[in-house]
Amino acid sequence: MKILAIDTSCDETSAAITEGRKVLSNVIYSQVLIHKKWGGVVPSLAKRAHEERIDFIIAEALKKYRRDRTPEVKEEQGDGRTSGVKKWREIDCIAVTQGPGLAIALEVGIIKAKELAKKYNKKLIAVNHMEGHIYSSFVQNSHGNPKRDFEFPYLALLISGGHTEIVLFNDHLKYEILGATIDDAAGEALDKAAKMLGLGYPGGAVIERLADEVGNKDFYHFPRPMLKSNNLNFSFSGLKTSFYYFLKRSVKSPIVTSEVTEHIRELTSSFQEAVFDTLIFKTEKAMKKTGISRLVIGGGVIANLYLRRKLKKLVKKHNGSVLFPSYKYLTGDNAAMIGVVAHYKAEKRLFVKNIDELDRVPRWSLDKLY
Ligand code: KG4
Ligand code: ZN
Questions:
Q1: Residues 277, 334 share a domain
Q2: Based on the domain organization, do 177 and 311 belong to the same domain?
Q3: Closest ligand to residue 7's CA
Q4: How far is the CA of 159 from the centre of ligand 1 (A)?
Q5: Ligand 1 atom closest to Cα of residue 101
């Protein structure tokens, strides 16, 4: 079954063609340059950019898949109108991210998916974006690599710009949230620290690069929030505040100011360490609590290679295993992971019953899906 998947949940416009767990094409247009100068995602700009690109991105996903898989039908691509019908014949259903995400951004993908489902008479599947991140470690290329079988249950650690969650992934489409952030997400903390240092948006990757150059994570000890609490929740806003006051103190004292600029690598490294230590600590706690030592990790922050090393060390200590999205473009937002979830929903015939009634769900917990 071939699925056309669409994701417009935040600041990436993405469309993919998937078949089972295989990605036949995955096109992502990142709006980072649009939002960069504002230091964060501006919803109205995101909506407009999605609207401007969505047709092109979907056409590219169809075209790329054609080019890669069936070169003999290449000539069909010239005329959008007549070739369109032929292209669409091979698509069995359409999947779209329904939430969570920015309401007016989600809406663009949903409206488009509804329009196409009606026009080409396809079934529609609505997917939760965080389910996509959970499944991203199982997404395969068109040759079926990496060959990973599911070995339930897993602990899924989801770390993105909007979410930080530990989820019990019991079976296909079966989730239970064990812990989540009560304020900022891990990626958000990195982004905010980077912003305070004038390093631009998004900050996670810049911080990784700077931290990697020196790696003196012990330069300054920032607090590791909520380590003493008995639950599996996270909190990163206190850490952000403590970083803010550290910088503020520094600005008052010229000696420390120069220390900030001179030691920006050590500072980013120390801050990053505080965020990652917290993630590792709570993940280990969840492993001990549940007795599950198989991890799957999803979300933009797992692009970070240093964090990957830390997680590998953690599972080694517990004789466990950890899976990451195998390709870098699968760590951030993409439609391929949405298509793969849709495959498992299609197997259970979880299609949208009334297409006209499908609406965005900007806040949509994994606990409340089925
Ligand atoms: O999953 P994602 O692309 O979008 C959301 O759904 O939020 O995650 C974006 C987050 C941002 O906070 C960004 O700073 C972070 O992922 N990120 C990183 C790295 N690359 C992206 N964080 C740490 N290290 C990286 N290399
Ligand atoms: Zn995401």
A1: no
A2: yes
A3: 2
A4: 8
A5: 6
Q: Tell whether 111 and 170 lie within a shared domain.
A: no
265 and 318: one domain? yes
Looking at the structure, do residues 199 and 273 belong to the same domain, yes or no? yes
- The single-letter DSSP state of residue 245 is H
Atom of ligand 1 minimally distant from the CA of 272: 23
> Ligand 1 pocket test: which of 158, 160, 272 has the largest number of ligand atoms within 8 Å of its C-beta?
160
Q: Please give the DSSP secondary-structure letter assigned to residue 318.
A: T
User: How many domains, the chain?
Assistant: 2
* Rounded Cα–Cα distance for residues 162 and 172 (Å): 23
Residue 88 sits in a domain of what CATH number? 3.30.420.40
**Which protein residues have a CB closer than 5 Å to ligand 2 (ion)?**
160, 333
Q: What is the pLDDT along the chain (370 residues), one digit of tens a residue?
A: 999 999 999 999 999 999 999 999 999 999 999 998 888 899 999 999 999 999 999 999 999 886 655 444 343 344 444 445 667 889 999 999 999 999 999 999 999 999 999 999 999 999 999 999 999 999 999 999 999 999 999 999 999 999 999 999 999 999 999 999 999 999 999 999 999 988 888 899 999 999 998 778 998 899 998 888 889 999 999 999 999 998 887 666 655 566 667 788 999 999 999 999 999 999 999 999 999 999 999 999 999 999 999 999 999 999 999 999 987 779 999 999 999 999 999 999 999 999 999 999 999 999 988 8
Beta-carbon neighbour count of residue 223 at 10 Å?
Answer: 13
Do 63 and 171 belong together in one domain? no
Which of 36, 133, 165, 190 best tests ligand 1's pocket when mutated (most atoms within 8 Å of CB)?
190
- Distance CA(214)–CA(264), nearest Å, equals 10
What are the residue ranges of helices labelled H in 70-102? 80-89
Percent helix, percent strand, percent coil in the chain, to nearest 5:
50, 20, 30
Same domain, 289 and 171: yes
Q: By residue range, what is the domain housing residue 191?
A: 154-325
7 lines ligand 1 (CB under 6 A): no
Determine whether the shortest distance from the Cβ of 41 to ligand 1 is under 6 A: no
For 167, phi then psi, to 5°, come to -125, 135
Max CA pair span of the chain: 69
Is 185 touching ligand 1 by the criterion CB < 6 Å? no
- 131 and 172, same domain (yes or no): no
